[in-house]
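S.,

Sequence below, as promised.
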Amino acid sequence: MSIRSKIIAITGGSQGLGKAMARALCSEGARVAIIGRDAKKLLQVSRDITGDISTFPCDIGDPKAV
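The prediction came back faster than expected:
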C-alpha cells in the first residue's frame, strides 16, 4: 500500500522515534503532522525534514488541549 499523499499524525514527533518516523514517512511522500508539547523543538524538526510536514504544539495528556 502506498502512503504517498496520505496524512499521518505522529505524537511525540519532536524527538526520538517520532522524529525518525516523521523523516521516513516524509521521504516516502506522506503528509505528516507532528504533535508534541515543545513548539520550538517541533519547529526545528520541521525545518530539518524535507517534505510536507506540519507542526501542532499540544499536550495530548491534557483533554482540554486536545
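The longest strand covers residues 31-36.

Coffee later?
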